[in-house]
């Protein structure tokens, strides 16, 4: 499952992608060694799901994304001290020419869209001594969750779209690869995880899926109606159990 992240997809992303919970952001900032004097860079920032909760822990942030619609959503949040930059991982070396050494660089659910080895190496090169780099995933994706309602959503998606097995880099193999790539940069690496339960409703589930599906997949061919019907059949509250995993690497 993938999306082009433009237009309506970007608007849905702004409404239906969660910020990292504030308590998790505080713990992540501490593990990164982020200080009130530091500059943060959020690579593949989306509409600010990491930028916003980490902003209270630093002096300011540079938020980088290749999709203008995402940056529009970020700017609409009116976050003070945030500079939005249209760019990608391949622009990190050039950014390093104009930015001071970073206190931290973070990547959310975006690293799997890059050449991970090159992106992590370029990001590590921008850190100040003692600075940190974190790869943060909030997964597995909703459609791979274990709750009965999530399994029902997956069954409907596969009926219309075929197998939906992509983990968006949230699986154990991707985690191990990233640990190895960061250790190869001479960084000290630790892995942390946090769990949170998020009550949702059918409107939120459909909006979230709209932010993840390609193009107009949700609104064509009867998929949306089939999902609505399936969610209506579910009994009891809908709760998404989210496991956040952070691979945190420090330059010591």
Explain the overall architecture.
The protein has 252 residues and is of the alpha/beta class. The protein has a domain at 7-140 and 168-198 and 241-250: Rossmann fold, CATH 3.40.50.150. The chain is 39% helix and 24% strand. It is built from ten helices and seven strands. A seven-stranded mixed β-sheet has the order 3-2-1-4-5-7-6, with helices on both faces. Strand 2 (60-65), helix 4 and strand 3 form a beta-alpha-beta unit. Helix 1 packs parallel to helix 4 and helix 1 packs across helix 9 (202-212). It is globular. The mean pLDDT is 93.
Low-confidence stretches: none
Q: Please tally the helical runs, counting DSSP H or I stretches of 4 or more residues.
A: 10
Oligomer state equals: single chain
Spatial arrangement of strands, main beta sheet: 3-2-1-4-5-7-6
Mean pLDDT: 93
Question: What is the beta-strand fraction?
Answer: 15-25%
Gyration radius (Cα, Å) is 18 Å
Please identify the top-level CATH class of the domain at 7-140 and 168-198 and 241-250: Alpha Beta
Q: What composes the largest sheet?
A: 7 strands, mixed
Proper CATH architecture of the domain at 7-140 and 168-198 and 241-250: 3-Layer(aba) Sandwich
Please state the overall shape, judged from the principal axes of the Cα atoms.
Answer: globular
N-to-C SSE series? HHEHEHEHEHEHHEHHE
CATH superfamily of the domain at 7-140 and 168-198 and 241-250: Vaccinia Virus protein VP39
């Amino acid at each position: 499952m993938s999306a082009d992240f433009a237009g309506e997809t970007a608007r849905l992303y702004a409404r239906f992608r969660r910020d990292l919970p504030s308590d998790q952001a505080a713990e992540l900032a501490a593990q990164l060694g982020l200080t009130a004097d530091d500059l943060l860079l959020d690579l593949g920032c989306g509409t600010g799901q990491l930028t916003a909760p980490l902003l209270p822990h630093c002096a300011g942030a540079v938020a980088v994304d290749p999709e203008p619609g995402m940056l529009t959503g970020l700017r609409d949040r009116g976050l003070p001290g945030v500079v939005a930059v249209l760019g990608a991982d391949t622009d990190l070396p050039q950014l390093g020419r104009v930015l001071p050494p970073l206190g931290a660089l973070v990547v959310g659910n975006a690293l799997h869209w890059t050449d991970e080895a090159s992106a992590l190496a370029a990001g590590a090169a921008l850190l100040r001594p003692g600075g940190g780099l974190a790869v943060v995933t909030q997964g597995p994706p909703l459609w791979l969750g274990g709750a009965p309602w999530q399994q029902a959503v997956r069954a409907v998606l596969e009926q219309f779209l075929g197998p939906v097995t992509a983990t968006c880099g949230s699986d154990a193999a991707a985690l191990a690869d990233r640990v190895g790539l960061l250790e190869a940069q001479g960084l000290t690496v630790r892995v942390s995880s946090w769990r949170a339960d998020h009550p949702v409703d059918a409107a939120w589930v459909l909006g979230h899926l709209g932010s993840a599906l390609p193009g107009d997949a949700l609104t064509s061919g009867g998929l949306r109606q089939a999902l609505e019907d399936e969610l209506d059949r579910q009994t009891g509250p809908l709760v998404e159990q989210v496991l956040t995993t952070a691979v945190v690497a420090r330059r010591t």
